[in-house]
């Protein structure tokens, strides 16, 4: 398996700034005019997602021979961050796409990676994650939703996943299921093109409405061995989990950055009274820079692990994700308070930031989920993280 570290060394000449600027150009030209439609009308920005793929927004954590840039997780996080400054819905879908590339980059099923990864990394094929339920199941929060019965040539899968995002006709997404009559689990990538699977849209959300979020019903869906990421998947889950969690921090970094800009803008008119609020733009901005530095450093360390993740690194990743959630909530509230009554107008930018910040704290792994994971870790190691 090609490691991200090796790929990064090979392509060290590529410029992080240029990669971010390419994403920023698509955001400004294509995404900015559509944010209200995505947020308030639930419009799914399919063409914009393809255009972001054209500028490698999803390709950085993927080895070059599999369609990626090889720049690594830091560049992947920076792309999600850049998109999220403007729109968390689209930033979240970019994360879904990156997460699916991460599954395929880290599988030992190289035939599957070679078949699907180039098109997913470049955004020609859109993809989701589908791991909210299993990630919660693996820390004893809820029961596993899917079961997989071994059959000749693969597995027969049944059950229902309540919400999977960045889906549409023909999109790929990852799933995990408990293998029948065993204590093991399997992970695979599937599509609604598979016979027996249906997508249902049965909920409306206060935010993130335009994210292609569906319930997925599996009725005797045959998943061939060729689509299996790992079975059993214990070691594989340990390998992908830190990247799954850390790349989400990009959403929080982008949202907080935009909140700082909104507060500074508001202060041109209301700075004389906003100075009495506890959280000032400069305070949030300083904490944002610390969060950025911490997240980027962790991304570089993950790239260098060659898939071997120790408990200490996982703890630090969880702490970074917690910090991203808490800073998002704090920044969004400060933005509302800075803007005052104008923020209370339906559809205002501060109001949207507040709704988006709650999503960052609730999306799997949610803030309470992350803190439960930390609670379950050895106390002596936790002390070394906080000290």
TrEMBL record:
Pfam family, one: Acyl-CoA_dh_N
Residue ranges occupied by any Acyl-CoA dehydrogenase/oxidase N-terminal domain in the UniProt entry: 18-124
Stored InterPro entries: Acyl-CoA_Oxase/DH_mid-dom_sf, AcylCo_DH-like_C, AcylCoA_DH/ox_N, AcylCoA_DH/ox_N_sf, AcylCoA_DH/oxidase_NM_dom_sf
Lineage: Bacteria, Bacillati, Cyanobacteriota, Cyanophyceae, Leptolyngbyales
Provenance organism: Leptolyngbya iicbica LK
Molecular function GO labels: acyl-CoA dehydrogenase activity; flavin adenine dinucleotide binding
Name of protein: Acyl-CoA dehydrogenase
